[in-house]
Each structure stands twice: as structure tokens, then as C-alpha cells.
Amino acid sequence: MDESGDPGGLVKVAHLLVLSGAWGMQMWVTFASGFLLFRNLPRHTFGLVQSKLFPFYFHISMGCAFINLCITASQRAWVQFTFWETSQCCLLLLSLVLAAINARWLEPRTTAAMWALQSVEKERGLGGEVPGSLQGPDPYRQLRDKDPKYSALRQNFFHYHGLSSLCNLGCVLSNGLCLASLALGLQSL
To answer: Concatenated DSSP letters for 44-60?
Structure first.
């Protein structure tokens, strides 16, 4: 960083690459791969893939948020920050906190709830079909209506899954707003 507070070209490039890379990864995992895998893989295979993918995804998101927060927060004394710089620090801190909650607390609980749910489904011969491929009455709805244990497991899974999804969307939105802030600060293209 030079005396004027300009972090230098290499730091700016690193910041942009890490932020845009994190946001691109989040967009892909959230809006493309998840839906494609869900619609084309058997339910339990989809769950297995997600259980392997998500720990890395959340930890990478957390690492990228940490790197970007460190770069942004170290630009100059905090009392000299502009509104945009303060906003960006707050958004990056939010992204870091949400990614950490997902990586360290929600993902392990969601995965454990999924394994418990799948265990009951396997006992009933379910889980090998691709969603939308079954004809007739929904066997999962029938199982939920007849088995209170399964119904409770399903409710527990969707509780953690919903919280995880909200945290993930918060990270996507935070990083998207940071990218928009950077784009608005460009002098030219």
C-alpha cells in the first residue's frame, strides 16, 4: 500500500479474483448444479454427492470471505472509510459469519439429519428413484403420514436445510452487492 492509501494493483486484482471467484462458485452451486443434480440423480445418490460437496463449498466460501474482508479492512484506518468501504466491510463480515455458521454448524447437522432420514427410507425400499419418475401416489407422503418417526426426522432435516439455504443466499447476496459496489467504482471498462 502506498502513502495515499491505494492498496496497489496486485492487491486489487487479488481482491477482485477472490470475490468474483467466490460469487461465481456460489451462483453455480446454488442455482445450477444443485437443481441439475436433484432432477437427474436418484435421491440418495444426490444426497451423497451433496454431503461430499457442501463441506468443501462452505469452507471455501468462508476462506474467500475472510481473505476479502482482510484485504478490504486493511486499506486504511477505519475512521477514514467511505460509506461504500464501510458497507463492503459489513457485507464481507456478514458473508464470513454466514459461511462459518454453514460450514461449522449447519452443514454437519443437515447431513446427519439426511443420513437418518435416508436410513428409514432404505428400510422401506425408497431412495433409488429419480425425483419425478414415480407414477401414482407419493410413497414419501404415505411414509410421512404413517410413520411419526420419519415425519419428525424429515421435519428436522428441513429445519436445518432451510437455515443453511438462508445462510447461503445471504452469502450470495452479500458477495453480489460487493461486486456491484466495485463495479460502480470503476472509472472505465
So the answer is: HHHHHHHHHHHHHHHHH
